[in-house]
Amino acid sequence: RQFFLNDPAYHDMADRMGVPYLQRTLSIQLTEHILKCLPELKRELQARHRDLAKEVSEYRTSAMVEGSGFDTKALVVLTHELQEDFDAAIKGTNLKDSDLKTLTGGARIATIFKYRFPSELAKVDLQDKDMRNHLVLAIKNIRGFRAGIFTPDEAFEYIVQMQIAKFEEPVLTCVDMVVTELKKIIHEVTNKLKRYPLLQRVIEELLTQYLKEREIATKQACTLYVHTQLSYINTTNEEFIGFANAQKSVNASEINRHITSQIIRKGFLRMHTNAKLFQAKEYFFVLSTDSLSWFSDSDEREKKYMLQLENLKLRDTDSGFMAKRSQFALYNTEGRNVYKEHRMLELSAENKEDMENWKEAFSRAGIFSERGQRVEASTTSADASSGDPHMERQVETISILVASYMKIVAKMTRDFIPKTIVCNVVQELRKYISRELLANLYAIPNSKSLLQESAEERQRREAKIAEFEAVKSALNIIENFHINTRQLSTTIVTTSTATTNFSNITMNNHFEQSSNSSKNLVDTSFGVNSNRFTTPNPLSPSYINGSKTPPLSIVAQRPLPPVPPR
């Protein structure tokens, strides 16, 4: 320090030398770097603080002091929240961000009622090949040895009852599908009670047990509906044999079908038609409301074929004992070729779930599934109907009547069964949760043990609260740092201004004295204009090593730089 102060070449910049000035400079640079990085860090901490605030507030609200009324209030609050979550899942209210990723339970049940159940009904073979043979045998057996002139009503009723009885299986299948979805909903809403594992298990058991009881009652009601349809064949229905209305509806549906063509499903399927063994090729299929097209790849540039959907139906096919993929086939109900010279278009999906989704898409396009029909026919019935034109006309008449009446029954079934399921299962389960669940929880011996918090949940809660406090403390530190930095910057600017003025005065005095000296040790070509500052009184030079320097007393009076904060 003495060297820089006493040397005429460096004494004017002595205030910028040494460890204190280095510390101050590094401190300023570090402060600027921190100020540059703090906004992004502050935004991240504020976002995390908002995420944790709601969860921590719930923890602190629920952290009630154990005492009188604790168990009662806690059970009431938890069951009320469970009821709200169940209603939201069923009715679709109070949507959350997670509800935008997948279908809620109520939407899945609506899909069953709208697509899956009609598809199951459409699988019933109402116009199979055996029905005509059964009609012939029924007509002949009813008449006995008599030669009849008119078509017997008993044959019509007998065949209609046979077809209605086939509806019992898809009806019960619909009940099973809805109950399965309700079990998923129960598991989802009770999963929010994992903080109290014993309470979660008890509530899930109570709801599952009650759901099982309602399932049995609903299946009995659906079976009673089928038996009710079998008990009386109402041929006075206004829609029975409504040829004119049926033709109008068919024409209207055809017009609407050709107005717009909307894409229903896309995906890869493997085509087995016209393919050798183990050489089936996959294509990218596009199903719309009026056609089925397939391309070589998903880019949809090279179209291989486009198939119209008129008069097409779907059936399951035998994929063989070595096949690992589920297969189905499309065929024409009028016996025409479907694809080139082939009567059927055989396709296979990657797995069973994918195949069911494709079947559901085909049902939306108007192509319904039919079960595999038996190829073998009764030789007795075939011989009985051959060569009798009068019998053929009677069989055709009854077939038309059966088809007309079964349309009425199918329409009523599609309307009545969903209402029965919602009334007997969904609504009753909602009533049980809102009215009886809390009472059943209180009826359990030692109900206080239900509110024992799990160790994992306790650790998680403590970790969340600790993280929230840490984030809050970090935000306070950042705010205090901003305040201290503003105060420090004001002090630094004031000190720097005073130091700069003193350095300029010292430099002007030095070069003024050096110009009058015979020894010009410093080049004055880069000196500062002395007219810019007020020159102080001349200082008496001190000769150290033959050079003129300002008095040390003046330099010693200069304030030292402040120590930067750490």
Automatic annotation (TrEMBL):
Domain GED: 395-486
Entry EC no(s): 3.6.5.5
One Pfam family of this chain: Dynamin_M
Keyword terms: GTP-binding, Hydrolase, Nucleotide-binding
Positions of region (Disordered): 533-566
Domain PH: from-to ranges: 262-367
GO MF, one annotated term: microtubule binding
Gene Ontology annotations of biological process type: receptor internalization; synaptic vesicle budding from presynaptic endocytic zone membrane
Top enzyme class: hydrolase
SMART domains per the UniProt record, alphabetical: GED, PH
Classification via Gene3D superfamilies: Dynamin, middle domain, P-loop containing nucleotide triphosphate hydrolases, Pleckstrin-homology domain (PH domain)/Phosphotyrosine-binding domain (PTB)
Lineage top rank: taxon: Eukaryota
Signal peptide extent: none
GO CC annotations, alphabetized: cytoplasm; microtubule; plasma membrane; presynapse
PROSITE patterns named among the record's database cross-references: GED, PH_DOMAIN
Biased composition (Polar residues): 533-550
PANTHER family, per database record: DYNAMIN (PTHR11566)
Protein's name in the database: dynamin GTPase
